[in-house]
From TrEMBL:
Organism superkingdom: Eukaryota
Keywords: Metal-binding, Zinc, Zinc-finger
Alphabetized InterPro entries for the sequence: Znf_SWIM
Segments of skewed composition (Basic residues): 215-226
UniProt feature, compositional bias: Polar residues: 244-259
PROSITE patterns: ZF_SWIM
Domain spans labelled SWIM-type: 119-161
GO molecular function, one term: zinc ion binding
Disordered: annotated span: 211-263
Protein name: SWIM-type domain-containing protein
Coiled-coil residues: none
Length: 316
């Protein structure tokens, strides 16, 4: 898409296209999430990470690929169990990290009580939110989406403690999804080891499935992910440093600016035409070669013979 629509005019139409979509915003806008998923994640990073682990097994035969996935799952479960055994807190490591950050940020806020169940939280950068403890919601909606007490809710809990009220442990205000017990229960089921292929039972099915005919593929098998034009240019800019990096960035920036200003592609994506055979994909110095000596004489002799034959057919 970046290769075809590279001008600024198309980039400015992005939000018009986003508002014109027929997909409801509950599926792609965090502000419209319902909180049913107990997560505010917008990306499919979980699927991408799992897919990247299967790169080495995807090009193998079916049984070999399944064996690779089974062994990877065994290794993955063991690694997670080792991390779980090191945890001493009631929450998962990711939830514990978020809660520690919220507790630190809550120390910068002040609270005002309205006399009922609502509190006004005011902090730095003109951040002011409302916490309704009757509905157990906050106007920032972070605690509603993740079921983790946000910094504004923690300010309310600190105010309760200062007034001598008992609120219990902080992890009791967290949804059970983020508890360490729930995380361990998800990895109770294990992948059983199996014997080698030589000890597998022979199938009683009368139909024997034969493998397809083998044919050698041209070139080396490609395993790398095909990157788009924008990803390749971005990676070149990140890898470049010093003078070479500045020159590369300058060159790419000038090409991008020229392409975006004129709305045309660079010569990098233009297909050349041969001036001799009039075919696209190569030039005069490409696949065709100059014939010398005996080969040239044979080609010229064949050309004259074919011309004479056509002339005789036309005369008759």
């Amino acid at each position: 898409m970046k290769r075809t629509w590279r001008s600024n005019e198309h980039k400015e139409q992005l939000w018009n296209c986003a508002t014109a979509t027929t997909i409801p915003p509950q599926h792609w806008a965090r502000s419209h999430f319902t909180g049913r998923a107990i997560s505010y994640m917008l990306l499919n990073n979980l699927c991408e990470v799992f897919n990247s682990k299967l790169v080495e097994g995807r090009d193998k035969p079916l049984i070999t690929c399944l064996e690779y996935i089974r062994e990877y799952m065994m290794k993955r479960i063991c690694n997670v169990i080792k991390v779980q055994n090191k945890c001493v807190r009631p929450l998962t490591p990711s939830a514990t990290k978020i809660m520690e950050k919220n507790v630190y940020l809550a120390s910068q806020y002040t609270t005002r009580w309205n006399g009922s169940d609502k509190y006004q939280m005011k902090g730095p950068w003109q951040d002011q939110q409302v916490v309704d403890m009757a509905e157990r919601v906050c106007s920032c909606r972070k605690s509603e989406l993740t079921d983790l007490p946000c910094k504004h809710v923690i300010v309310f809990l600190n105010d309760k403690v200062d007034n001598g009220e008992k609120i219990g442990e902080l992890h009791t205000y967290v949804h059970r999804v983020h508890w360490l017990e729930t995380w361990k229960a998800a990895y109770v089921h294990k992948v059983e080891p199996i014997k080698g292929r030589a000890m597998w039972p022979i199938s009683d099915c009368p139909i024997k499935i034969t493998p397809p005919l083998h044919h050698n593929q041209h070139g080396r098998l490609k395993k790398k992910i095909r990157q788009s034009t924008g990803e390749r240019s971005q990676k070149k800019g990140e890898n470049g440093n010093g003078a070479s990096g500045s020159q590369t960035d300058g060159a790419s920036g000038s090409q991008t600016h020229a392409a975006s200003g004129s709305g045309k592609l660079t010569r990098k994506f233009i297909s050349v035409t041969c001036s001799k055979c009039k075919n696209k994909g190569h030039n005069l110095q490409g696949p065709s070669r100059k014939l010398k000596g005996f080969e040239a004489s044979l080609m010229s002799f064949g050309f004259y013979m074919s011309t004479a034959y056509v002339y005789c057919m036309l005369c008759n």
